[in-house]
Design brief:
Porin, 8-stranded antiparallel barrel, 2 helices, alpha+beta, 2 domains, 244 residues, 55% strand
Length: 244
């Protein structure tokens, strides 16, 4: 209901806008375990650094509130550390689908924005064969700045945090952990270009305009030909008159 109220309060655009683009960046991720796992403190020793990237689709039907959907690759995981063994990394590679509400404020050229919404994911590759549940679901929230150009599209810089409600391990009463939730912090850049909707009416009007130009050109050629024939006949009549 809150989302509906926010969207309804926004001024509508005269024509909806569609954008398609790419984004990518770097991320730091870990997993929150309860009870805590040894050798995961401080948190800097528990993080896995990686990358992310994917496709972005955006629908803008209102001036300050847009709908955004993404298909992303996300490097997740966690690490443990001990002085004797060093770091032990658990690298997880996910395919994720965030569905976000994009709220933005500012001028037509430069705006501050907020992204918020649910996401689902699936672990495509577990390097250490260490997790029990490849399916993931959670929430994503981000904020940043975007610049809109006339011909080169939209450029964005975003800081995003995502938290998983699903666990990489079972979290029932009989399991070892009652929480095993991945979370990530990432810094991303994006580039989006407007998708021009095919206007059939404009195509029809352009065809009709070209047709009228061709018909007018043909009519002028025929008129010129008729004038030349009339002139030629007049010249013949004048020569016959002179002969007589």
């Amino acid at each position: 209901m809150l989302v509906t109220a926010v969207v309804s309060a926004q001024p509508r655009l005269s024509k909806p806008e569609f954008y398609l683009g790419i984004h990518g960046g770097v991320s730091a991720g870990t997993v929150i375990f309860r009870p805590a796992v040894a050798n995961m403190t401080p948190i800097t020793n528990a993080c896995v650094l990686g990358g992310n990237g994917g496709l972005v689709f955006r629908y803008a039907g209102h001036k300050y509130c847009h709908f955004q959907m993404e298909l992303n690759y996300q490097h997740k995981g966690w690490a443990t550390y001990s002085e004797s063994a060093g770091h032990n990394y658990h690298n997880l590679h996910y395919l994720e689908l965030p569905i976000l509400m994009n709220l933005n404020f500012g001028s037509d050229v430069c705006r501050w924005f907020f992204n918020l919404g649910p996401q689902i994911g699936y672990c495509l590759w577990d390097e250490n064969k260490s997790i029990d549940h490849p399916f993931d679901w959670g929430m994503a929230a981000g904020t940043g700045l975007y610049v809109k150009t006339r011909k080169a599209g939209i450029y964005e810089l975003e800081i995003r945090f995502d938290y998983s409600f699903g666990g990489v391990y079972g979290t029932s009463i009989t399991d070892t952990y009652n929480m095993a939730s991945p979370m990530d912090l990432s810094v991303n850049m994006a580039w989006l270009m407007p998708v021009r909707k095919v206007d059939k009416r404009k195509i029809y009007e352009e065809k009709e305009r070209k047709k009228r130009i061709e018909e007018e050109k043909k009519r002028q050629e025929e008129e010129q030909k008729r004038i030349e024939e009339e002139k030629k006949k007049q010249e013949e009549i004048e020569r016959e008159y002179q002969v007589r």
